[in-house]
Structure formats: structure tokens, C-alpha cells
Amino acid sequence: MNFKIDKQTIEELNLTGKFRSGSVYAIFNKVKTNGGERLLDHMFSHPLEEVDAINQRSSIFRYFGEAAFSFPFDVQQLNQMREHIDSMSSKNQMLVFARTCIHKILAGLTRDERYRKLVQGLQATILVLHKCHQFIQAMRSDSPFTARVDTIREILSDKRIEKLRQVDIYKSLSIQTLSSYEHLLKGELHGQMEDVLNFIYEVDLFIAVSKVAKDRKFNYAEALPPAKNLMSAIDLRHPAIDNAIGNDLRMDGSSNVLFLTGANMAGKSTLMKSIGIACYLAHMGFPVAAKEYRFSVREGLYSSINVADNIGLGYSHFYAEVVRVKQAAEAAASGKRLLLMFDELFKGTNVKDAYDGTLAITESFADYTDCLFVVSTHIIEVGEALRRKDNIRFVFMPTIMEGSVPRYTYQLREGITEDRQGMLIIRNEGILEMMDA
């Protein structure tokens, strides 16, 4: 089974996108190799669903962070090795020898670069293998990465590779030596060379992500079995906001609905995005922007934060919201354990309908106790009507008035807000006076 997330949720949380401003992917994309970036792409596209797999990956990141490794490989040499072992070669050793001879003759007579690239490719491969051997010697024998290291150690202990590592790259290589190793590395040992390169790409990723965690003071989540139905965070923040204010929260089977109120600009949407991003990163085994994060594994994540109208389908903003809620209801009714988040339900219609719709939908969601829900609204009367539901927890983002100027603390509080500063902000901006002039 795969962790379920749709395109709208990915875009609302700004999870992916190498060049998207403020994307979560861009925060972690500090890798040095193309292979490391491909691995990062894969992890972002395939969150994990198994408790042990998540905790195992987190423990590897944590190990790399504690060891404070620096990436010891030269990227140009890695690219040359990659090109070298991927280039075509014959299974017949005599044909390889003959072709190597021809390339050397052509190099002397013309500007043919193939022989020089052959030599440089082998030299780069020797250097990479040598550095890889040195690197694994420095790794702990009891680390969570030990099984992977042992696989590479076994490859490098092959007598043919050991012999290759001892070749002096600064001395002229004979055609016999060059063709012999080309045949070996591109033929019989091609799979092993691929595994060594993949190992190096993994090392690149683990070093890069663990360094991001250290620099940004992110921490690693603890995955728990799904049946616990828990999500608990201390000092949870939005990872893309510098000096963001953190909040504590807890959701479980007895309080699986978080009902969030607060004035516009009080920070409700940012908090919801922080919750969603942390959930997604935690399922990847990645560090999250929190001091502590414990969660029961979910089967998917679903958000409705920035629903837009759809001119192509003829949808108004309100109808687009209705369609989105219907999709969420179908997902919840499927029996999957999900995290679902809704920001300002039905803001595309009148206040009375928005009140009725928000109340009815939230009450219905509360019955799906295997799912966790976050619902926000600025229609605070809905909260009072929902108090009869025992499994709804009421929290709000406060606004503090300093004279006629609102100040937002972004600190979560228990209860339902009583803030109503909409008209005050309009007056502060001088809109009414401007229109009367």
C-alpha cells in the first residue's frame, strides 16, 4: 500500500518543487550529486507506511548527524566513474583489447578523445573506490547503517577490486591493464560498481539532510503503530519560516478533531500547514520542525486550504469547496486512517450557509474516530454548537489589541476565540474615509 496524497494537498503545503519558492523540498535539497537528488526525489514521492521502516530511516539520519560526516567524494570524479561504467563494452575481452588499441592509435593521429576519456574514467573509478574504502573504515560497526556498509565492504574486499585500488594512477597504464579493467568493470563487476555508486548517493543524501536538521534545529519523529491514533508535537513550527513561533498540540482517539478559531491573519492557515508538513516529513523518516514529534502512522494526508474556482469545469468557488469536501468525506468513509485538514469551510457562500455547513460537516467528521481532523473557521458560533461532542478539542489563535492596532501572538490557546477585529482593521486602513472623500 502507498501513502495517499493528492496534487492539491502537495501544492497547498508547498511540499515539492526544486525551484518553487519556499518549498519543503528546496529546504532539504542540499545534496551534491545528481544521484543524491534522484534519491531525494524518490523519497519525497514515496512516503513510508511501515513503523519499522520509518524509524529505521530516521535512525540513519540521526546517526549521520551525530557523526557529523563531511561528503568525502569529488563530484567530478563520481561523474567520470558514472560515465565510464555506463559506456558500452563488449563481452569479448579480445575485442575490448583491440578497440582500446585502436582508440590509442587514433588519439595519436587525430584529436580523438576516446582513449583519454577511457584513461580518465578508470583513474576516477580508482580514486572513488579508494575514498569509499577509507570512508567505510571510519564508520561505526554498530550503526543503523551497518548492513548497508557491510554490503559495500564485501564488494570492496573482492581481490580484483583490491588490486585495482592499488594501481598507481599517476603512472602510465598499459593498454593491457586498461582494457582488462574496462572489461571487468563494465562486465562482470558492473552490478557491484552500480551498488557502490548508489551507496555514495545515499551517503550524500543522509549527510545533506542531517546537516539541514542540525542547522535548522529540526528533530526526528517517533513512529507508532496506527491503532494508537496519536499525533503529538512540542514546539511545532513551519519549516520554511525563519524564527517561527512553535506550538504544542496533541490529537488522539479521544480528541481526534481539532477545532481551530481565530481572526484572519492570526496564523490559522500557517499552523495547519505546519501540521500537514510535519506529518508528511515524518512519514518519510525526515527531520521535522519541532522539538518532539510522535505519531501513529497514517495511510494518507488530505487538505483543503486554498481551494480555488475552476473556470474550465464551470465551478464557482463555493461549488469547488463542496466538491473538495465530498472527496474528503469519501476518503474518510473508506476506512483508511487519514489526517484531513480544512481551512475556513465554505467561505465561498453566505454566513448562514457557511455556519450550517461547517457545523454539519464537522459533526459528521467527528464520527470517524480512526481519522484525525483539523477544522478552522472564523465563524466562532459554530464552536459553541459543537461543544456537545466529546471528541472535539477547541483551540484558537489569539489577537491582542494594543490600542486600535491588533497584534498576533501565533501561540495556540485552549478554547474558542472571541476576537472580532474585521471592521477595526478596515477602519485602520482608512478605506471608509477614502470612499467618503
What Rg do the Cα atoms give? 29 Å
* Overall structural domain count: 2
Largest sheet: 6 strands, mixed
> What's the total number of strands?
14
Brief synopsis:
The protein has helices at residues 7-12, 24-28, 34-45, 51-67, 75-86, 93-109, 114-137, 146-156, 159-165, 175-188, 190-216, 268-284, 317-333, 351-366, 381-386, 422-428, 431-436, and strands spanning 219-220, 222-224, 231-236, 247-251, 257-262, 287-288, 292-296, 300-304, 338-343, 372-377, 392-397, 399-402, 405-408, 413-414. With 437 residues, the chain is α/β, with parallel strands linked by helices.
Characteristics:
elongated; alpha/beta; Rossmann fold; 4-stranded mixed beta sheet; 6-stranded mixed beta sheet; 17 helices
Task: Write structural notes for this entry.
InterPro entries: DNA_mismatch_repair_MutS_C, DNA_mismatch_repair_MutS_core, DNA_mismatch_repair_MutS_sf, MutS, P-loop_NTPase. Residues 255-433 form the DNA mismatch repair proteins mutS family domain. The chain is of the alpha/beta class. The chain folds into two domains: 75-213; 218-436, P-loop containing nucleotide triphosphate hydrolases (Rossmann fold, 3-Layer(aba) Sandwich). It is built from 17 helices and 14 strands. It has a six-stranded mixed β-sheet, sandwiched between helices. A four-stranded mixed β-sheet has the order 2-7-3-4. A two-stranded antiparallel sheet has the order 1-6. Helix 4 crosses helix 11 and helix 5 (75-86) packs across helix 7 (114-137). It starts with 6 loop residues before the first helix and ends with a helix.
